[in-house]
Amino acid sequence: MATSLKLNIPTTAPRGSSAFAQALKACCAVNAFQADQVQFCKSTDESVSLEASKEGIRIIDINAIVRYLASIGGAPWKSTERAPDDAWIEWEEIVLRPRISELATVLGLAEQLLVKTGLAKSGPVSPAQIILFSTLYDSAATAAPGLLDKHPQLKAWFRATLESDWAMEGIQKAASMTTVVDAGSAKAVKSAAVVADKLPKKPVVVGTVADRKLGEGIEMKFYGPDEKILPESGKRNILITSALPYVNNVPHLGNIIGSVLSADVYSRYCKARNYNCLYVCGTDEYGTATETKALEEKVTPQELCNKYNALHRQVYEWFNIGFDHFGRTTTPEQTEIAQDIFVKLFQNGYLTEDSITQLYCEKHDGFLADRYVEGTCPKCAYDDARGDQCDKCGSLLDPMELINPRCKLDSQTPVVRPTKHVYLKLDELQPQEEAWFNKSVTEGAWSRNGKTITESWLKEGLQKRAITRDLSWGTPVPAAAYEGYEKKVLYVWFDACIGYVSITATYTKDWEKWWKNPENVKLYQFMGKDNVPFHSVIFPSSQLGTKDPWTMVHHISTTEYLQYEGGKFSKSRNVGVFGNNAQDTGIPPDVWRFYLLASRPETGDSQFNWRDFILKNNSELLARLGNFVNRLVKFAIAKYEGLVPDYTDSAKDPAFDAFKADINKLLKEYVEELEAVHIRNGTDLLMHVAQRGNQFLQDNKLDNATFAAEPAKTAAVVGLGLNLIYLLSALCYPYMPATAESIARQLNAPLRTIPDTWELDLKPSHRIGKAEYLFSMIDLKKEDEWRGKYGGDKSVEEALKEEEKKKKADKKKQKKEAMKAKAGEAVKDAVAAVLPDAGSSK
Predict the structure, then answer these.
(1) GO MF annotations for this entry (predicted)?
(2) pLDDT digits (tens, 9 = 90+) for 35-55
(3) Using CA atoms, how far apart are residues 177 and 577, in angstroms rounded to an integer?
(4) How many Å apart are CA 458 and CA 461, to the nearest integer?
């Protein structure tokens, strides 16, 4: 047995030629017989040949190659089944070769032999099946497909065989190995090779360029790994950022939909419109949150950052978030750019120094940053508020406001001491900030929350705000501005938004072409509502204060909160689905993406609910979109041998005008909603287009009877339907990129742009690929399993009560231990007073 075989396939093989028929037989045989030891090689020879150099074997007869592959392959094909195969050898030698031009006679004899030998019965595939199928596919099905209608048994066997895995894989492999052109058209071969070199980074097509008959200028533009996306004059240049996630936790579904996933949809939409678009994000790694988490995990802040940066990358990669660059803020670029902004604000008179009183922990001898202080919220009486914010009522706080404050590190009661900090004069910058805001909020059509929150800050009147902190982990305060700040760093919420700029600088040295190019670049920023003031007030004011020509935010897209089964996500209580949990369920990322985006809390809080999640998959994705695509692709493969039928004239029938008008109306609405960054509405319109496609097939009764009775009408319905599927792939791409790629593979077409008007871009005779299932049914029984596993079975009240009970028990224990320790000290003092030498060594 040969251990290594080389199969030489001709590179130029026009459809219907002997060379293509040979290539098809060889490729089908390799797949059918699982001849894994075969290596495919392109060849300039005119026929297929098989070489086994170690054994000194070279086979040049294609049918002999098929039988040889059957004998060495891993698939079951026994010698006892050689009798019918011998009959086919005789048929091939006596009938097929001499009368290849008399197809009607050949097909008639083939049908008789098919019945006589029992070849059509189920069982292991044989060489005879490979030879007959390939002959019919390339000769009868292509040169004269109508002849098969006169031989119903042969036609039924052929179509059933066409849907087998080995047949479809063989067809695709043969198509990919050859360049199918008109015989002698060397120029076309060269042109096809040039186009093939320009395929996307993620190839989604099968077959060859010449197999594709497509409209002009519909392919999306993709950048290679070494290419940098930069603004281009005269083009629509879009810069997109999503709020930088902290590196002190695992992102949950609310975090994901609130920033990175929403931004990803808009980025993919822009790219599907062939806008010049750059999407950057990264982890926010400086500040108190990092220090406190590092203390909890007993690691250094840098070690913590490395751990969580990698974790975030993994989560976002699984969710198929298509960042152009995902970076981090602990970089030299961050230090350089942040310090430059600080120094320019100082030089322009927008910084001031002031002494303030701050909480100080005498036990560990250090000033307490906001997040190092915990206590009772003065506004809602929540007993576990942080020094910067109350998680229960959402109020921004000053640690000095907390009732009964305590040090997070050792639970000691802090004291008040004076310290110096640098402040940004927001009050002096307010006129510039307000003028810019009024212009941007109108031209950029901000989300309602972004507009409302910013207006409330401006109406209340901006006050100077401290932008330094007593920490060691952060961007150092530049020595050129202030002395005595060696142990202080820039406040994280002054520093963090600058991270967008520094992360871009780690992507390209030409970062200023994006960030200091306001005339040619529009900046879109995505975040949860709690992050709005830092993006709409503090960062823009800092930009204005430098007097540099900054690219400033054009549109702010905000979300409210995504709740989990009626309550909040909580890692500590094991309530809710976090990024790594989604993967554990086995549900594909596209289903998660679609559900989250369809539930996006754009105008109010929304709920994640397991039953809704399952029903959204089953009744919408599977029933509407998946079934529409699968039904039509399989129909085209079965009835038209995988070729788009000639619908050119019949599709012009006025009876189809209303359908075309409906699709164009829905397409126009989809584009308008995405241009306005109304992301949730886009999911509704996507499903409306799919449902209109289902209705179209239903109205025109696409079935076997209509195919036989009204061939012209059926061709039009299939042609229009396949083109609608191609449009759907583009509309899916922002929301479900893997689904879009699957549809493109099934249509044997590249990822395409989102047009303004629906055109029929899959032309007659375009060869489609193999059918794939887009979605699978989810059993409703999984609802209880998942709810139990991820904490949704507990009510919010029960979970909060358990948490409060645990906290009270911990505090009671700490208090008891403190009293015991205090009593012990008192006893020691009393003993020492009576017996001064009691503690000595005597």
Answers:
(1) ATP binding; methionine-tRNA ligase activity
(2) 878 888 888 777 888 887 766
(3) 45
(4) 5
Span 158-167, average pLDDT: 77
3-state secondary structure of 636: helix
Q: Tell the residue number behind the tokens 């999984």, with chain if given.
A: 782
Nearest to 342 by CA among 548, 549, 537, 508: 548
Per-residue pLDDT of 637-672, as tens digits, reads 999 999 999 999 999 999 999 999 999 999 999 999
Q: Does residue 729 or residue 79 have the better pLDDT?
A: 729
Higher pLDDT, 819 or 111: 111
Residue type (1 letter), 263: A
Please give the average per-residue pLDDT across 607-631, as a whole number: 95
Cβ burial, residue 411 (10 Å; 0-12/13-18/19+): middle
Q: Tell me which of 226 and 815 has the higher pLDDT.
A: 226
521-528: strand order across its sheet: 325-328, 276-283, 237-242, 521-528, 553-559
Q: What is the pLDDT of residues 698-722, one digit of tens each?
A: 999 999 889 989 999 999 999 999 9
Which three-class secondary structure string do you get for 130-155?
HHHHHHHHHHHHHHCHHHHHHCHHHH
Homologous superfamily of 603-789 in CATH?
Isoleucyl-tRNA Synthetase; Domain 1 (1.10.730.10)
Fold of 339-432+447-469: Methionyl-trna Synthetase; domain 2 (2.170.220)
- CATH for the stretch 5-181: 1.20.1050.130
User: 629: which 2 tokens?
Assistant: 């695509």
Q: In three state form, how does the secondary structure of 493-543 look?
A: HHHCCHHHHHHHHHHCCCCHHHHCCCCCEEEEEEEEHHHHHHHHHHHHHHH
**Strand blocks (E) in 323-481:** 325-328, 351-361, 366-367, 373-376, 385-386, 403-407, 415-424, 465-466, 468-469
CATH number of 239-334+495-584: 3.40.50.620
